[in-house]
Design brief:
Blueprint: H1 2-13, H2 38-54, H3 66-77, H4 86-99, H5 105-116, E1 120-124, H6 135-139, E2 157-161, E3 168-170, H7 172-192, H8 201-219
Antiparallel strand pairs: 1-2, 2-3
Helix pairs in contact: 4-8, 7-8
Pfam family, one: RAB3A-like_C
Family: Belongs to the SEC2 family.
Keywords: Coiled coil
């Protein structure tokens, strides 16, 4: 009995366990103030730690593929527009052909030929009202139908191939694929003609890689549309 009484005395006088006067009916008084839930606090601190783990600081990096780099250097020593050379053949297979493959295959082949010959022109549809467009142009798609895909799309541009009098209406998606290929050809023509004088071979290589990147994005369906 004395031991039990001593335990009761120690517990009631402990500063960490203040005594509480019971209310009538056996109820204990309501504690004022806020007590943080330990499990919630732990979860919150844990979530901050998780964020620091799953969101590392990153930076854009690049490293030249030696095979591609050597092919480019060999091509630059004797630049040619012959698609059978190793440098251009790989780009044709991996980027150019996929970019210029459309459901209207015959027209797609004509587009590639015009791009290679530098005889393709693109112009906004708004330069010429529809009512003044020749019948032949209307037959090659229209402002609401893409001539390359045959799909009903809003066409803000049209293309003309060589000396043909026909205009072909193209969707923004098709236009971006065509222009990405045109930009590549324009740059390598400049190199072939000796017009790129402000860049060394490394800078030229990375410019070619950037242009290939644009073609890769275009063939995967990513494009920029003029608003």
């Amino acid at each position: 009995a004395e031991v039990a009484a001593l335990k009761t005395l120690v517990l009631s006088s402990s500063p960490t366990s203040p005594t509480q006067e019971p209310l009538p009916g056996g109820k204990t008084p309501f504690k004022r103030g806020h007590t943080r839930n330990k499990s919630t606090s732990s979860a919150m601190s844990g979530s901050h730690q998780d964020l620091s783990v799953i969101q590392p600081i990153v930076k854009d990096c690049k490293e030249a593929d030696l095979s591609l780099y050597n092919e480019f250097r060999s091509w630059k020593d004797d630049p040619t527009m012959d698609r059978s050379c190793p440098f251009l053949d790989k780009i044709y297979q991996e980027d150019i052909f996929p970019c210029l493959t459309f459901s209207k295959s015959e027209l797609a082949s004509a587009v590639l030929e015009a791009v290679e010959n530098n005889t393709l022109s693109i112009e906004p549809v708004g330069l010429q009202p529809v009512r003044f467009v020749k019948a032949s142009a209307v037959e090659c798609g229209g402002p609401k139908k893409c001539a390359l895909t045959g799909q009903s799309k809003s066409c803000k541009h049209r293309i003309k191939l060589g000396d043909s009098s026909n205009y072909y209406y193209i969707s923004p998606f098709c236009r971006y694929r065509i222009t990405s290929v045109c930009n590549f050809f324009t740059y390598i023509r400049y190199i072939q003609q000796g017009l790129v004088k402000q860049q060394d071979v490394d800078q030229m290589f990375w410019e070619v890689m950037q242009l290939r990147k644009e073609m890769s994005l275009a063939k995967l369906g990513y494009f920029k549309e003029e608003l």
